[in-house]
Amino acid sequence: MERWAIAPVTINTPMKILVLNAGSSSQKSCLYELIGATLPEHPPKPLWEAQIDWTHQELKVKTAQGNVIKETLPSSSRADGTAQMLATLWNGKTQVIENPGEINIVGHRVVHGGEEYRQSTFVTKEVKDAIAHLSIFAPVHNPANLEGIAAIEKILPTVPQVVVFDTAFHATLPPAAFVYPGPYEWLEMGIRRYGFHGISHQYCAQRAAQILGKDLNRLRIITCHLGNGCSLAAVREGRSIDTTMGFTPLEGLMMGSRSGSIDPGILIHLLRQPDYTVDKLDDILNRQSGLKGVSGVSNDMRQIGEAMANGSDRAQLAFDIFIHRLRSSIGAMLASLGGLDALIFTAGIGENAYEVRAGACEAFGFLGLKLDLEQNQEKLSEDRDIATPDSKVRVLVIHTQEDWAIAQECWQLAHSS
Asked: What's the predicted TM-score (pTM) here?
């Protein structure tokens, strides 16, 4: 097994950490510079941030100095797009370093770590093989994560890489939550609930405690990560005790283009039809369902809202189903916790769609949850509590900082190696 050697960091030595966060429809990347032997209490501003929208083949880059570029990707290849994005670090108006050699370590978000990987680790051949093997459970994500690792190996062959697993935070689920009610042999085959978006859920729970000035170990929290992919987590004493995604990121809430949980009998019925194959069903469930499939418009909640405003019944139906399933799942998490101190909304929909927050919260007035409707509709530029002062449940909108959480893992591994 490879063993990365990282030069010790002194109080005056800057450490540059590059983070690649690959999602199902986008890739977000950033470069942090940390100085000193301790991590800052609050997330620092990255020197450089980039985002690739794979759907529209568009690259956007901005720097801490305010320089911005927007480019079209000439190729649909993720490897080519990643290489074009990385080149903006040391070339052109968004240049923030002289050469690639200034980067000390690279961190990646990896969706599925299976049972084998319950904590962050350095990239080795064994780790890459495991990520590839686990792609069967996360076919939209793990291959994209591997492509990012391969791109870094090509451009920065001597720089150590770290993988941070989305499943790790949910390693604390009790057996009653992670074992499926099928034959016990399923569990022996590794078929169990793993949960995802763990990096985001963990960060948001910790940030909520910080905002509220409370001890995380004394809080009962539901975190709602609502983006193109959606999941909830019930967090008690700082640990995940229940979550909506399962064996794969396909289970749970209705999502942008994923169905979420449906009657498995539907799948059996469809596979008995002559024109249905496993691959076709996989594509339908992961890429042609959810908001996109029901609305016929888009997987983007913003476009769903526009279509609703223009009188689209299917867009309205998609929104209504999304809210219904979100409320139902919050109720399930509430039962696991036995009460609720804070409800958190994060990610693209959670942070920006005030109608979704209002629709979800409306059902929980019986808990004494009171949403400040005026604050909820304001454009939120910072983390904020949007409940009324007399609300018995705090409602927080938190900008998820997955990239910073990944950077912290890189820093900690570098200092322990």
From this structure: 0.85
